[in-house]
Every structure is written in structure tokens, then in C-alpha cells.
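Extended Data, record 3-oxoacyl-[acyl-carrier-protein] reductase FabG
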Amino acid sequence: MPVTAYDLTGRTAFVTGAASGIGRASALLLAEAGAIVHCADRDAEGLRETAALIEDGGGTARVHVLDVTDRSGLRQAVTSCARLDVLAAIAGIMHSSPVLETRDEDLDRVMAVNFKGVLYACQEAARLMIVRGTRGSIVTMASGAVDTGGPGLLCYGAAKAAVVQLTKTLATEVGRHGIRVNAVAPGWIRTPMTDRHEGEAQARTEAAMARMSPLGRVGAPRDIAYTVLHLASDASAFTTGQIIRPNGGVTMPW
């Protein structure tokens, strides 16, 4: 018997951060599952590449060039959807600085994208789902940084911890409308965001991260996209307010 719980045919998904990395992989996989995918990012060229990949695979894509910190632009893009079944709020940036050297502008910039951008997307998506009576799924992107202290990751970790709290709180507020809200907290994933070092330095960093995992490897964007698909689909119909950790076993919290 075919497994139909992951079939998103006839549904619409909105993915932020879709121009590259986990966002692109998630947009592609949601499209493979049958969804019409609205791809949002400030990287216009990357968005066009993602949309082309979706369409080359027989899917349907819509492109929205926007900055997730622009609430009005995000609202316009989300409400342009004829219906909305899935939000995958994935857009994010990385910043590294020791606590004692972190400036106000560093914290403000990271919180604006990694927390407020997710908040705005969740607000607009949830409002649309409620108005149109959609029993939808909202998927946010947290990080393994919420489970452990990492040198230099105050801004990033604090913003992702805020996303976790947003996820849990929103889940309690919109569940009565049939809307589920869950977060994904990836481990080390090979993406443009984590490719911050040159040559051998990058290889050493990845090797060190791989040694921390019982599986002996770092993750790929599609590893995380499968978790996004699971949470977006009917396969997770009884799952809400949860933090799913595809991290290769690096952390195993109770």
C-alpha cells in the first residue's frame, strides 16, 4: 500500500530562505511531494535558481524577493497565496563574536532576521490559515545551539532560543484552529552559512563536527528537508509544540 501521508498534492507552502541551503532543499522536497511552493528570499538570483529546479522537476514555484525583516512586504507575499497549508520559516543569518565583544548592532541585526523575521512570518501565516479555515502546519527553524553553549554564538543562540519559545507558545494558541507549530533544531549542516572557512580550515572544522556525532558525519540540507516535510505533512498530524533535532546524535536532551 502506498504511503500517502506525505502527499502534499493540492496544498500550498511558503518557504523563507529558499534561495540556498536548507531553505532551498526544503522548497524542492515540498514541491516533490506535490505542493505549490512560494519561495521567498532577498537573494533574487538564488530564488530564480530554486524556482527553476522546482519547475524542471515538474513542480510549481512562485518567487517573492523580500527581506523577512520587512513585515509589510512579508504580509503582501503571504496574503498573495490563494491558500496556505504550510509555512517553513527558514531564513536566517550567522554571526560570531565573544560575549564581551558583542555590540548592540550585532545583536539587533541577528534578532531582527533570526527571530523577528520568523515571528512576522508566523503571524502572517497563522492569520491567513485562521481566516481561510486551513488546518495548516507551521515549521520554524531553531538550531542545535539552543541545547548547548557555543563560543561566539550568543546572538545566534539567543535568537534561536527565542524561536523555540515562539514555537511552543504559538502552538498553544492556534491548536484550537487545527494549526500545528513545530521547530526543527539541526546539528552541523553543510550549507553556505556554515562554509565560513578557507580550504583546509573548513575541512578540519567539518571533521571535528563529524567526530562529535555517533553517525560520524555532518548533515546535508536534504537531511533537514525531510524533517520539514514530515512536520508539514499529515504524517505528523498529532505533533505540535515540539522541537525535532536532526543532529546526528550530537545532543540527546531528555
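Summary. Residues 12-244 form a domain with the Rossmann fold fold (CATH 3.40.50.720).
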